[in-house]
Amino acid sequence: MSEREAMEFDVVIVGAGPSGLAAAIRLKQLAAANDHEISVCVIEKGSEVGAHILSGAVIDPIALNELIPDWKEKGAPLNTQVTEDNFLVLTETGSARFPNFLMPPLMNNHGNYIVSLGNVCRWLASQAEALGVEIYPGFAAAEVLYNEQGAVVGVATGDMGIGKEGEKTDAFEPGIELRAKYTLIAEGVRGSLAKMIQAKFDLAKDSDPQKFGIGLKELWEIDPKKHKPGMVTHTMGWPLDSSTGGGSFMYHLENNQVAIGFVVHLNYKNPYLSPFDEFQRFKHHPEIAKYLEGGRRICYGARAITEGGFQSVPKLTFPGGALIGCSAGFVNLPRIKGSHNAMKSGMLAAECAFEALKDGRAHDEFPKYQTAYRASWIYKDLKRVRNVKPFLSKFGNTIGMMLGGLDMWMNQLGIGLPFTLSHGKTDAAATQLAAKFKPIAYPKPDGKLSFDKLSSVFISNTNHEENQPSHLKLKDPSIPIAVNLPLYAEPAQRYCPAGVYEVVDADGGGKRFQINAQNCVHCKTCDIKDPSQNIVWTVPQGGGGPNYPNM
Length: 551
Prior knowledge:
- With 551 residues, this protein is α+β, with helices and mostly antiparallel strands.
- The chain has 15 helices and 24 strands.
- The chain has a domain of 225 residues: FAD/NAD(P)-binding domain (3-Layer(bba) Sandwich).
- The longest helix is centred in the last third of the chain and has 25 residues.
- The chain is globular and about 65 Å long.
- It starts with a strand and ends in a 14-residue tail after the last strand.
């Protein structure tokens, strides 16, 4: 076995998203204020900071105001303030606008900013580096390091230059150990290390199963005459049926650009449903097409979203570190916002970790972070919407939305429901047998408003080194054809938004399951939705995956 190089830090942060970068900045701010120097390292699996960041995004600046009060003077890329807020209910050819005055106040987007979250993270990284944070993009954390007492003492990056059959190539380089007194896990939704840590320390034993959605997004450049900077539109209804949760967003940014996206809640029942094709069909609705016609699609991507909220947040600390951001799941589902909570969680964890470091501690647990979370506005933000997702799941979109809206209004008036509804089963377990449904005949893409998966993956700039083992692992290679195909019509062919999974004719007859791992946009949907829970998403060699310019 090759000897791995080891680097020592006070704090190692896995993931250069909003929570990880906010934590790094806060640690260095505290170090400067207390004249107590600490070393902070952030590693990022994307080829650069922001390469794997995908979000709507309308951002609430509350956390940024706390972290960097003079962010405007420092050039933060929050350029387009929300000026118009629309919520539409769609039928196949028509729409009805939901009056703004009936919406709970927390749903109001005025005072928020339409942004590229990738560009916000690039800017946060520049602020972190100016404070002395070391940031290493292209380094994928593949392993958790433990000491003899079982505490986390850092992470190791994956070996580079391993061939498809697991052999060392001429380009082989062993992974690097990044050892730390405290390790903050900020991988985002369904991170592979977070999964390992949650299982080892049983962090989710007192919480509901996490719930997820898949968010698909395209960036368009549209006709300047149709462009309305600051306009935010959300929809629900068509093309989804009343029992399938989800909706859309359309945000008008600067430079005649529009972010158009579609979210499908992953607790959908019908295994024939394809979130990607629902998104493509949606863009033909007259209310949407009128903005996109004559425009040009610039970029495409997809990402899972945490939707469990309040009752699905696991225990946040473990010996040697903590979960922050979407590794823990702080998205406020009705608001479709999580960046502000992710940043705040990173700041809270940083404050507690710094206090422990100042006291000369290492590799122990800092439960003050859990206490700080419960006293924070994150907790309040999630608690007041905690029953919205269960209402939608139990009663469908129409009645569920009405009950959820009523509950949010009651919380606004200080008379919220005295109980918290449970989410029940996982999204994988929600998938029902194919025999109960008919295949869905999706229209062919027209190449103007709607497109196929492979041309979409092409403009996500996704790239993986060809000669490497697949980062998508099957626990049992026989299950896709022996179990998932006869029972569920093998839904991986449809829930994957990148054409990674195919059922093809095998040599000598029959069928075989093909994995095109080079197409993977790292959305993690397969790890979540596979009804047999047979697919395990792991990190590829560092730098692989999408390269989003400004998603």
